[in-house]
């Protein structure tokens, strides 16, 4: 892609790409693996990619989905074999982790299309860019965003009211 080196793109976009996948509901380790694989593929195809931000998100989402399916099969085999992997503590400060988990839990309440457009939006993409990347009409993206925001606002309000009532 003319104008920006792959190295500069990678340095700027890799953390955001992993965050995008986390916003879609993937575990952080899986998100980082899928983001790395997407970046590797972007590097291989750098000269032919017109819109690298949306390109890597599309590839990373597909990679994460495939890896999640493989992981589910592995979990089933591990449970059947009596082996359970140890839990790892997060490296982020507790309040950041808590905020991320809260956001992820709220996003999980949304239908898939709404959750996906919110993840793209959190990652700084405009509705027209999201529509192009997903192959849908811009009005569909705007509608999904509107419905998602309405639901998230209602959920946020309910959670705050419950917290105030319980305090």
TrEMBL record:
InterPro entries: RNA_pol_sigma-70-like, RNA_pol_sigma-70_dom, RNA_pol_sigma70_r4_t2, RNA_pol_sigma_r2, RNA_pol_sigma_r3/r4-like, WH-like_DNA-bd_sf. The keyword Ribosomal protein does not apply. Residues 104-152 form the RNA polymerase sigma factor 70 region 4 type domain. Keywords: DNA-binding, Sigma factor, Transcription, Transcription regulation. Belongs to the sigma-70 factor family. ECF subfamily. This is RNA polymerase sigma-70 factor (ECF subfamily).
């Amino acid at each position: 892609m003319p104008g920006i080196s792959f190295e500069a793109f990678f340095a700027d976009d890799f953390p955001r790409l992993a965050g995008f996948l986390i916003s879609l509901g993937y575990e952080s380790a899986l998100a980082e693996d899928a983001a790395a694989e997407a970046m590797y593929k972007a590097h291989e195809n750098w000269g032919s990619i017109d819109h690298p931000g949306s390109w890597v998100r599309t590839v990373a989402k597909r990679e994460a989905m495939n890896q999640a399916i493989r992981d589910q099969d592995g979990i089933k085999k591990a449970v059947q074999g009596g082996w359970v992997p140890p839990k790892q503590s997060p490296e982020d400060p507790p309040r950041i982790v808590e905020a991320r988990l809260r956001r992820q839990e709220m996003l999980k309440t949304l239908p898939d299309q709404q959750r996906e457009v919110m993840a793209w939006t959190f990652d700084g993409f405009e509705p027209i860019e999201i529509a192009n990347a997903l192959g849908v009409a811009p009005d569909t993206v705007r509608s999904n965003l509107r419905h998602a925001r309405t639901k998230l606002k209602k959920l946020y309000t309910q959670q705050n009211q419950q917290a105030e009532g319980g305090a």
